[in-house]
Design brief:
Layout lengths: L1 E4 L13 E2 L5 E3 L7 H9 L4 E4 L15 H18 L4 H28 L10 E2 L4 H19 L4 H12 L10 H4 L7 H18 L7 H9 L20 H15 L11 H11 L6 H10 L8 E4 L4 E6 L9 E7 L2 E10 L8 E4 L9
Parallel strand pairs: 2-5
Antiparallel strand pairs: 1-4, 2-3, 6-7, 6-10, 7-8, 8-9
Length: about 375
C-alpha cells in the first residue's frame, strides 16, 4: 500500500484502506475505485492523506495505532462530556467533569496498555478518519501523543494518569468560544484571536473546581500555549515556570494541529510537523520532550514514498523502534528507472544514507 495526499489522487486508483468517520462507521470501503466525484468528496471532508492499492507495494502494512474499540469509546466519552459542558456555569461544568473523570482515567489506563504493548511506533495515519468536530478528535490525538512522550520519558503510573487527564481536557475551554470564530476559514482579527486565547484560562477555571482530579490537570489546560521563551499565552510564562506536563502537551498539541486538515490550512506530513518542533526546540519547546516525541512517533509512516540522498527512490516499509527518522526503505527506483527486483535498505544500519525528500506523486502506480 502507498500513502498519498488527497490532492494528488487521480480517478481510477483503488482505495487501500477503508475511510471511517470518528465513530468508526465506514464511509468508503477498501478496494473501491475512486471516481472524480469521490476524490472531490474526500477533499470536502478535509481528509489529507489516504492509502491506495499499489501492486508494487501491496505487501507493505500501514501498521496499527490504537484499537478501533478504544478509539470509538474515547472519542464518544470526550464528545458526551464536552457536549454536556456547553451553556453551563463554571460550577455546573466542574460537576460534569467530576462525573466523567473516572471514565477518563479508565480510558487512559487502557490507552497506556495498548501503547506499551504495541511494538510499532505510534502513527495516526494507519487509519484514516473524518471528524464532525475537530476538538473531540484533537483532544484524543493529543492524549495519545502526550502518553507516548510520557512513556519515553519513563514517567511513573500516577504521573501518566495526571498527564493523560491534562491532555484530554487541555482544550475544554474552547467549548465556550463561538463556533464562527473556531471554524473561521480566514485570518482571525485581533479581537477574535483574543477571544480564542481565553480558552486556556476558561479551561483552568472549569477544571480547578473538580475535586476528583489533581489541580495540576487544570494547569495543563492553563499552560499548554506557554512557550519556553515567554512568547506564549495567557501569562507569558518562561522556562521552569512552565510545568513539565505543560511542555509535553504543548509539543503534542502543536504537532497534531499542523498535521491535521483545518478550515484555514492543509495538513502537513509528520516529518514536516517534526521540522516545526525542531525549529522551536530549546526556544519554544523543551528539547528532551521533542526528542522523546521523535523516538515515540512514526515520522515517516509506512507506505510513504521517499527519495534518498543518493538519488534512489522507494517506499517506507518498516519502522525502527526508537529511531523514527531512520526507517527501513524498500527501493523501487535507481538512476531514475524502476527496478524489477526491489530490495530493502535499513537506514539505521546505513547511517550515511538520509531521506532527502518525500515523493508523493502517483505517476508510477500501475492499476
Amino acid at each position: 500500500m502507498r500513502l498519498l495526499p488527497t490532492d494528488s489522487l487521480i480517478p481510477g486508483v483503488r482505495l487501500g484502506k477503508s475511510i471511517k468517520n470518528e465513530r468508526g462507521h465506514i464511509l468508503l470501503y477498501e478496494g473501491v475505485k475512486l471516481s472524480e466525484r469521490m476524490i472531490l468528496r474526500l477533499k470536502e471532508l478535509n481528509i489529507p492523506f489516504v492509502y491506495i492499492h499499489d501492486p508494487k507495494t501491496k505487501h507493505i502494512n500501514p501498521g496499527k495505532s490504537i484499537s478501533e474499540r478504544l478509539r470509538k469509546e474515547a472519542i464518544k466519552t470526550i464528545e458526551d462530556t464536552f457536549s454536556d459542558l456547553q451553556n453551563k456555569d463554571f460550577l455546573s461544568n466542574s460537576l460534569v467533569i467530576e462525573k466523567a473523570s473516572r471514565r477518563f482515567t479508565g480510558l487512559i489506563r487502557d490507552i497506556l496498555i495498548e501503547i506499551r504493548g504495541n511494538q510499532e511506533l505510534l502513527t495516526l495515519l494507519a487509519d484514516i478518519y473524518t471528524y464532525d468536530n475537530y476538538i473531540f478528535t484533537h483532544s484524543f490525538n493529543v492524549t495519545l501523543y502526550s502518553l507516548a512522550i510520557g512513556t519515553e520519558l519513563k514517567l511513573k503510573p500516577k504521573q501518566m494518569e495526571t498527564l493523560g487527564l491534562g491532555a484530554i481536557l487541555h482544550d475544554v475551554g474552547k467549548i465556550l468560544v463561538p463556533v464562527d470564530i473556531l471554524m473561521k476559514p480566514g485570518k482571525l482579527t485581533e479581537e477574535e484571536f483574543t477571544e480564542i486565547k481565553k480558552h486556556s484560562e476558561t479551561g483552568f477555571q472549569i477544571i480547578r473546581n473538580v475535586h476528583t482530579v489533581p489541580l495540576l490537570v487544570a494547569h495543563c489546560a492553563y499552560q499548554h500555549h506557554e512557550r519556553l521563551d515567554g512568547s506564549g499565552y495567557p501569562r507569558g510564562l518562561a522556562g521552569d515556570d512552565i510545568h513539565y506536563f505543560g511542555k509535553i502537551i504543548a509539543v503534542a498539541d502543536v504537532f497534531d494541529a499542523v498535521t491535521s486538515n483545518r478550515v484555514y490550512r492543509s495538513a502537513l506530513l509528520p516529518h514536516e510537523g517534526l521540522e516545526i518542533l525542531y525549529a522551536g526546540s530549546g526556544i519554544q519547546f523543551d528539547r528532551k520532550v521533542v526528542e522523546a516525541f521523535r523516538r515515540a512517533v512514526a515520522i515517516y509512516p509506512n507506505g510513504l514514498g521517499v527519495k534518498l540522498n543518493d538519488g534512489r527512490k522507494g517506499i517506507v516499509s518498516r519502522q525502527n523502534r526508537g529511531c523514527s527518522d531512520r526507517p527501513v526503505i524498500e527501493i523501487l527506483e535507481e538512476n531514475g528507472q524502476p527496478i524489477a527486483d526491489t530490495y530493502e535498505v535499513d537506514l539505521e544500519i546505513y547511517t550515511h544514507l538520509l531521506i532527502a525528500d518525500c515523493d508523493t506523486a502517483n505517476s508510477k502506480i500501475n492499476q
